[in-house]
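Please fill in the sequence for the structure shown.

STRUCTURE ENCODING:
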């Protein structure tokens, strides 16, 4: 598949059996209603890609953070919980904030106010589970804990990981299972750039459209962390 890093492209030949997709925080709702609408619009296309990738042997991990209680007892949840524990090469952080020793500042202001709703409501939890437009198949896994995910990947001899979902500048980069952590753990990581969305309000710096703000964050990831790929490439790996 073609991987993009800045202006250059390289071909990655990944075996499906050694590859996993982590679906980050594709919740059923969000305090930012425009963000929730974009997740709902993206979910059917994401589900089609996941179905095709699953069909060629790619492992699918659902990671709707903070909702693991909903999946208690589900075989997909137990599969990750019961994976033999492995000691990672470096400590796994619960979250991975901006690494000033490796990357520059994010190209957008996502601190002052990241929601682009016309009237922004309180930033309270409105999600309860993963968006139900995404199928959780019998062979999938469920976890929001990188210690579990890392152990399961080691058990399955998975060394390639694709991140998709939301939000590109926050959870995709900073979760315990996000891009920063995967790169530090030595995984071959890529971002599915057409199946992600940012938390960015055009009323904040650098005062560009939401789409342009998301593109700037993708470029930041490509520059400092890992390449990006198009989701269609995940359906016909080597």
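FILLED IN BY: designer on duty
SEQUENCE:
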């Amino acid at each position: 598949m073609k991987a993009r890093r800045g202006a250059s492209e390289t071909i990655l030949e990944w075996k499906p059996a050694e590859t996993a997709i982590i679906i980050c925080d594709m919740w059923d709702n969000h305090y930012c209603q425009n963000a929730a609408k974009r997740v709902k619009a993206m979910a059917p296309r994401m589900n089609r890609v996941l179905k095709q990738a699953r069909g060629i042997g790619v492992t699918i991990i659902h990671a709707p953070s903070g909702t693991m209680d909903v999946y208690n007892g589900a075989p997909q949840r137990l599969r990750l919980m019961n994976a033999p524990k492995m000691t990672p090469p470096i400590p796994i952080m619960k979250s991975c904030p901006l690494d000033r020793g490796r990357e520059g500042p994010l190209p957008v202001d996502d601190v002052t106010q990241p929601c682009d709703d016309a009237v922004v409501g309180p930033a309270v939890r409105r999600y309860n589970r993963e968006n139900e437009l995404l199928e959780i198949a019998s062979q999938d896994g469920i976890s929001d804990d990188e210690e579990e995910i890392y152990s399961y990947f080691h058990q399955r001899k998975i060394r390639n990981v694709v991140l998709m979902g939301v939000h590109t500048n926050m959870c995709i980069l900073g979760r315990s299972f996000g891009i920063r952590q995967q790169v530090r753990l030595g995984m071959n990581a890529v971002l599915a750039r057409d199946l992600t969305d940012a938390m960015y309000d055009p009323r904040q710096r650098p005062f560009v459209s939401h789409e342009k703000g998301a593109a700037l964050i993708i470029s930041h990831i490509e520059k400092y962390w890992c390449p990006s790929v198009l989701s269609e490439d995940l359906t016909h790996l080597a």
